[in-house]
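> Could you send the ABC transporter permease prediction when you get a chance?

Sure thing. Input:
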Amino acid sequence: MNEILAQVLTMGTLAVILAKTAPILLAAIGGGFTQVGGILNIGLDGMMLTGAFLGVAVGAVTHPLVGVIAALGSAVLLALVYALAHLVFKADNVVVGIGINLLAAGFTVLLLTVLYGNAGATPGDVKSNLPPIDLGFVGQIPILGALLNSQTALVWLALIFVPVYWFVLYRTRYGVHLRAVGEDEPAAVAAGIPVTRVKFIAVLVSGGLCGLAGAQLAMASVGSFTAGMTSGRGFIAVAAIIFARGRPVPTLIACLVFGTADAVADRLALGGVNSSLALLTPYVITIVALTVAGVRMRIAVRTRTRKGLQQAAAWGVRR
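Output:
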């Protein structure tokens, strides 16, 4: 038992937590834009998976930075398909999201087979790793140095996007329009807000951030792609969004919880704990988080209903 704890409670675990949190956080912020605008984007996992494959495939024959750009662009294209299907052709957003996930899973396996002759993973000589950033003397600071040193640029970008997300939502015209559309779409239409355009932009932004999330997932350490390597992280991001209700700081906290669970699961596996049992940890926390979020939503709905009935009764008495 002491050996297992020693494996988990190390300075190296802090760095792993941040690296594991980054892809979930990027996807959650992207999904947060659509959630605030009234769209629950179930297709985050498929967009991440596409970004992960293109990041490695393109980065291996060019440069890791080009791979990241390819990951971003491919996920935006997939998000464009989502936006057209849901916003233009009025397909159900949940059905479209499931379709996007299935399309990405099948398409990446097809490309693996066609390009590399292996449906499971890219060959060993197809590698593309994002370079870690050395912070110099800052990396020698206790705890903080272990947490922040030798992380990729995408980890830093994920952290920077939290205040950027807050600023866009609460300090820009677009953020006001997005929140208005999500809170009361008919009122937003009556106020002259271009609802379709606002939602379209949110979906494309979610795609771009999911592409970066996929690049971080595939290129941060292993530098290769494995079929289905997101392992449901897109759905974990959706759970974080629902739990945080699209708010920036609670979204960061929720993603840190999931990232910690993922990192601890890896460390437990290294410490000799049954790997299947250890890998269940993030998903158990996801179920708990969704349950808590569901209870909170029901309480909020009941409270609003009760207040509405009370106001209606008071209005009837006054008349």
